[in-house]
């Protein structure tokens, strides 16, 4: 683990804000809208302090350090840490400071998954834990089961041409609703059939031929 100084953190925030400000705005919107499983014992990832630097998945659009210069001030990086850092470190920035944003994403995933795997999976699907995919891939492979589950799911909202099948909402909120529409706009299926009670699992069956699947208040979906 590499600790950055307060000065490095300030410099990193400033550099990435200038070079990747458009990515930061999207993450703020996601944190404001996404809601984790209502009855989950896990803490809401949105309540966990995010990295002080901008989102871990934000890559600078300006000049970056070449891979050959990705070295910490002390010690050395592992091969996977170098893969994570490749293309992420602005010039004149301490690579260890950038690495820490990924490590913090790993820590957030691990803390949440320890309490509730569904909550962690939903946070990765919705992007509530920014940069989780790359962080898990290179920095915390022990969390790959969470990433594998997330890659099969999708967030609430509108989804075009979804794969037919049974899905489970990663929330137990009672305001989750969904509908599947055909190409002509006709409703092929909708639910829940009866108002759910607190703690109920909410599922959806997407028929073959669904052109659009819309859901609200459901947070995220994974195959049931």
Secondary-structure element sequence?
A: HHHHHHHEEEEEE
Largest sheet: 6 strands, antiparallel
**Percent range for helical residues?**
25-40%
Low-confidence stretches: 1-34, 38-43, 46-54
Rg, nearest Å: 20 Å
Give a quick rundown of the structure.
The chain has 224 residues and is an alpha+beta fold.
Q: How does this model look, in words?
A:
Strand 3 (177-181) and strand 4 form a beta hairpin. Strands 1, 2, 3, 4, 5 and 6 form a 6-stranded antiparallel beta sheet that branches. Helix 3 runs antiparallel to helix 6 (132-138) and helix 4 (95-115) packs across helix 5. The longest helix has 21 residues, at 95-115. This protein has 224 residues and is an alpha+beta fold. It is elongated and about 60 Å long. The protein has helices at 6-19, 21-33, 79-85, 95-115, 117-126, 132-138, 144-151, and strands at 154-160, 165-169, 177-181, 187-191, 203-206, 212-223.
Defining traits:
224 residues, alpha+beta, 6-stranded antiparallel sheet, 7 helices
Q: Secondary-structure blueprint of this entry?
A:
Layout: H1 6-19, H2 21-33, H3 79-85, H4 95-115, H5 117-126, H6 132-138, H7 144-151, E1 154-160, E2 165-169, E3 177-181, E4 187-191, E5 203-206, E6 212-223
Antiparallel strand pairs: 1-6, 2-5, 2-6, 3-4, 3-6
Helix pairs in contact: 3-6, 4-5, 4-6, 5-7
